[in-house]
Amino acid sequence: MALTAPVVPADEHTAQRTLVLRVLLLNVLFWVTGCIVIAGHLWLPRACAHLVAAISARRKVKSDEDDVVKERRRMSSEIVLTLADAGVSRDVIAYAISVTDYPLDIADIEVNIEQGATLKALNATMDAHHEVLDTQVRLERTQNKLLRELERKKARLDRVEAYYRTQLDVANLTIEMRQLQGQHRS
C-alpha cells in the first residue's frame, strides 16, 4: 500500500527522501525477486526430480506387490488345476489352498476348475482343428502332385499323337505319290 498510496510530502526534503525510499524499496524488491527466481531455477528442477523419483519408487513398490500377488494367484491356480486334473475332490483342494498362503477361496477354486475343463475342451477342439487343417494341406499337396503328373502325361500323349499324326501324314503322302506315279506311267 505504501507504494501505491499517494504521499503528500510536507516539504521538498521529505519528498526527496520518500522518492529515494521508494526507489530503494523497488531495488530491494527487484533484487529479492531475482534471487528467488535464480534460486528457483537452481533448486526447483532438483526438487521436482526428487519428487518424481519418490512417486516412481512408490509406484514400483505397488507394482512389485501387485506382481507378487499375481504370481501367487497363478501358482495357486496351477495347484488347483493340477489337483483337479488328478481327480482330487473339491474339499481336498480347498484344504490344500487353505493351508498354503496363496490367496484363493472356494469360489476361485470352482472358477479355476471350470476354466480348466473349458480350457481342456478348447485345447482338444483346437488340436482337432489343426489336425483337420494339416490333413487338408496334405490333400491339397497330393492333389497338386497328381495334377502335375496328369499334365505331364497329357503333354506326352499330345507329343505321341503329334508323332503318329505326322507318320500318318507321311504314309498318306507316300500312297498319293505312288498313285500319282502309277497314273503317270499308265
Describe the structure in your own words.
- With 186 residues, this protein is an all-alpha fold.
- It has a domain at 105-185.
- The protein has three helices and no strands.
- The mean pLDDT is 78.
Helical stretch tally: 3
Strand content: under 5%
Distance between the termini: 151 Å
Helical/strand content category: mainly alpha
The total count of strands amounts to 0
Mean model confidence by pLDDT: 78
Low-confidence stretches: none
> What shape does the CA trace take?
elongated
Major beta sheet, specifics? none
| H/E series | HHH
Proportion in helices: over 70%
Gyration radius (Cα, Å) is 50 Å
Transmembrane segments: 23-44
Coiled coil: 136-163
Keywords: Coiled coil, Membrane, Transmembrane, Transmembrane helix
